[in-house]
Amino acid sequence: MDLLKSLKKNSLSDIPWNFSYGLLSFEQVKDYCTTLLDKNSSVMKTVEKELLCHEFHDKCLLNLMLKSYAAEYMTNLCDTWRLHDEVKFAAIEMFGKFHALLLSQIYETIYERPEKTLSLYNQGQSNQDTTVCNSKEQITEKNNQWNQTLEHVAKQMELRAVSCIVIANKLDEHKQGPVNLSFAAKYLSEKGFNYNIDALIKSELRVLKTFQYNLGSMLLVMPHVGVLIDYLFHIDQTFSREDIYVLSTELLNCFYPRCVKFYAKYSLHENHSELNLAKASDKMILVAHDIILLACGIVTSAVYLWSSTKSDLVIKILSSVTDVSQNRIVKFSYTLLEETLK
Q: Which positions, given as ranges, span the membrane (predicted)?
């Protein structure tokens, strides 16, 4: 229980990640907007610096690809279990970042640490030091070890997906449904997996340890979307908060499985000449970390689907409150609708 309280205290966002939208005063909404904008600015500055690091670049690409890979399965599972949208999207983000962190740690251990290599692909085996040399035999051994690691991680994908959903649901203040360790173990058993409650507990701990028990490093879009929708409603009460929220979640359901393709396509419109980015994928990674831009694009697209005559107004309002240019919001929303409505 103490661990859960600690996780909630340090989890997910500087604002409640699933607070009841529509119950906030305009002053509270503006304060939340300021908080989210400041955090987003800090994240973007950090990413700009970290992109010079090869390891960070590869970790971000892994995160995107794994989110895209697992999104449809995790979305269907969360919908079947009738979990909140915030739980669903938090679990998808957790799954992607967990595997990116895990694989980068293991890769570094196998290939880059000079003092030893560790056999981490099998959690039950003890770690053994071996002398590192540059011989072909040693390189072959490391390659084999890495391939074994990837095979082992792939076999546990469904276990990790379920673990991330269970963890996210525990952090949901308004959690609903019977989703707990017993429920998850029964589900995996029915799917033909031999995982008991003890295995699920170990899996949860593996996820949390990889995050160093700090889930605040995840970038979650739903708090941003909710705050921006509330902001629109306070400006103009003809906006239907409920309809726009539902459309936003449906767009995110379509977005996550296509996020790699979307970001690759949209980043062609971005101009970051002042940063001297070496690779085209660097622009994609930078854009993928801009949660304010994603939230603006999601909300603008949702408003367009709800009432296309309101889209120009929402673009002006969101641009004024977020400092994202109207041109970027238009291009992002257009690309989003083009990809998700295929």
A: 211-233, 284-306
Q: Give residue 165's pLDDT band: very low, low, confident or very high (50, 70, 90).
A: very high
Give the helix ranges, DSSP H, for the chain: 2-9, 26-50, 54-80, 85-107, 136-155, 157-170, 181-190, 197-210, 222-235, 241-255, 259-266, 280-288, 291-306, 311-322, 326-340
Give CA–CA dist 175/172, Å, rounded: 5
Token pair recorded at residue 313: 């107004």
**pTM higher than 0.85 for the full model?**
no
The upper half-sphere exposure of residue 252, i.e. CA atoms within 13 Å in the direction of its Cβ, equals 29
Summarize pLDDT for 116-136 with one digit per residue, the tens.
444 444 444 444 444 445 578
Q: What is the DSSP string of 122-191?
A: STTSPP-------SHHHHHHHHHHHHHHHHHHHHTHHHHHHHHHHHHHHT-TT--SS-SHHHHHHHHHHT
Domain coordinates of the chain in residue numbers? 1-52+221-342, 54-217
Separation CA 258–CA 65 (nearest Å): 9
Contact 162, 73 (CB under 8 A): no
Report the distance separating Cα 250 and Cα 246, nearest Å.
Answer: 6
